[in-house]
Amino acid sequence: MTSATTDNALAGAWRAQLIFTEGPRNGEQEPVFLTFLPGGVIVHADEIPAENDQLPRGIGEWTMAGDRFSYWFNVVLNDPAGRPTIVVYVHGSGSLAADRQTLTASGGSEIYASAGELLATNRA
Fold first, then answer.
1. What is the number of other CB atoms lying within 10 angstroms of the CB of residue 42?
2. CA-based diameter of the chain, in Å?
3. Domain extents in the chain
4. What is the reported pTM?
5. 27-80 residue pLDDT tens
């Protein structure tokens, strides 16, 4: 894990509304939970369960300088037997409002099959 400089103002759980702006999911919306942990770890959870009732979880890192932050995390989706089938690499950056109650971010994702082939890219 890389070293991260963090600001505790972002630390905590955030509920966000993701709006896809490019890619196969263009125009779709998805609610997500992002938890920024002190020390630079980010945990992601969708509100939309996968087909096998697995709640997709992502884990990665975040850093912050002033009111600007950046992040990345990976989400691994499994088949009903528990084998990984898809990996989603998510990355982005954003800013925390002066009131420390609102964040705005944009970024992208690349979706890979378990064999490593790129299936799709999205922007939000």
1. 21
2. 46
3. 12-123
4. 0.84
5. 999 888 899 999 999 999 876 666 666 665 799 999 999 999 999 999 988 888
